[in-house]
Every structure is written in C-alpha cells, then in structure tokens.
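Fold this sequence, please.
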Amino acid sequence: MQYGKIPGIDKPVSRLVQGSVMISTRDLEGSFRLLDAIFAMGCTTFDTAHVYGQGDNERAMGRWVNERGIRDQVVIIGKGAHHNADRKRVTPFDITADLFDSLARFKFDYIDLYLLHRDDPSVPVGPIVEVLNEHRAAGRIRAFGGSNWSHRRIAEANEYAAAHGLTPFVASSPNFSLAEQYREPWEGCISISGPQNEEARAWYAEQRMPLFTWSSLAGGFFSGRLRRDNLDTFEDYLDKLAVYSYAGEENFRRLERAQQLAEEKGLSIPQIALAYVMSQPLDIYALVGCRTPEEFAANAEALTVRLTPEECAWLDLRRD
C-alpha cells in the first residue's frame, strides 16, 4: 500500500480508499469480515456519507472501528450537506445538522476529513468557510473540503479563507477516470475526466491539492461486462448507471486500448484503468467500492504499476 499526507490529519492516508455502500448493520459479520481483510492489506482510509443507506452505513462503519479499537489508526472521510428531494442543503445549518448526525451514528468524537457532498453556487462561500472553521476549532473535524465542487468554487472559498485568516479547503473529491463522463450519474456531480476538463486538471496539478476521485473505474465500465452490442440488456441499477454515464464510442475505444495494454503487461483491464488514474501528475487518492478482499487486492496491485506519459496519452486517445 502507498500513503500520502493530508494537511490537518496526523495519520497516513492510504492511496486506495475503500467505500462503504456495501456494508450494513443487517450483516455485521460479513461487513466486518470485508473491512478486516481490507484493513489488513494496509487500507487506512474509508469513505462514508450522511446519505448512504439512510445512516446505516455510518452506523456499521462506527461499530467496526469502535469494536476493533482502531480509531487512532483509520482515516474516516465523512460527507454532508447533500441535496434532498425538496431543496439544496449547502447551508451552515444543514452542514452542522449533518455533522452532528454523523458523529452520533459513528459514536466518534471527530471525523478526520469532512467533505461537503454537493455545492450550491448560489450560496456565498463566506458563511460556509466560517462554519467549517468553527467545527474544526471545536475538534469535530480535522480537515475539510468539497465533493462535487468545481475548482473555481474551491478557489473562491480558499481566497475567502486567506483574506480572513481562516483554514482553507484542503481536499477535493470529483469524478476522475480513464473514461469520459458523458452524463452525470446523479444530479450535481462534478467530473474532471475528458478533454473538456483539462483546465480543472491543470489547476489541481498547480495547486497540488489532494484529490479523492470517485468512480475511478467508471462505475464498472472497465469490468468488461459492457459491450457495444449489449447495452440494453442490463437490469442491475449500477450497470444501467454505467451505461447511462459512460457508454459512448470514445470510451469503448479507450476500453479496447486498455485491454490491449493489459494483455501486453499481464494485468487486468481494471488494473490498467486504475494505473492510468494513479499515473497522472496529480495528488490522487482513488475511491474504490470493493465487495470482496480479492477485488481490493487486485486494485492494490495496480498501485505498483506506473504508466508512462506516452502510455497514458495513448489510452486517453490523445495519440495514435
């Protein structure tokens, strides 16, 4: 496993971050078995959110961490202020309410990295930066950032923080993968994949801001299940979402090139796709949603693979 450092967090942050949507209090034995195995492979960092499983995922994660007695060894990413069916919720009140909910579900005193799950560009950044600083000063969070925030809004927030002597956003969590995201899978998502987002990637490279990239394997597009001739046959929700968001001619060409390079290097297609993400000139931590220890082990192996800039450009259709 490889690790990095996030300002404000005094623990090693694993470059592979395990998600939590597959764990549940309804199957604590199976959930604990999966988390134990992934933790034993060196994963220290786990991604959660206030909206996942209506709070059940946070409760399951908290049970595991507390029963294993490893709070000082793991980095918990929490997310709050997600929109609901009625309104956008990026307000100091909703941020505070979600944070207290999550702490109660986890039964933790603090969350290591707290991300705002969505943005509302109509809301001024000042009160948002201020309330996050209040929670950091109170010890409820160690660091904070934005998930699905544009780089311009993060820059605006950090300019406000600098002007007022406050702590800035230290991390961002956009979508990024080898596959271009044609349509956002859920409302309010931000992607930095594809040629149209080159400006965002350049900004992140210049700032050296840590990126916790979600759907690093394009929601299963690189699993090999999706083909040009079977896109209307899927019934599973996540498979249909991958078709909706990623199925397009350019991405199928990227998939074919990933398959060719995988055969040359003796790797799997998902390993090549993940190696592409980790070989960028960016400070990346890849979010993965492994449902078995074997899946996580295969992804961890991809961390040892470094692709050349020429290989990355070829995979991304930027050279022949």
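Residues 249-265 form the longest helix (17 residues). The two ends are 33 Å apart (CA to CA).
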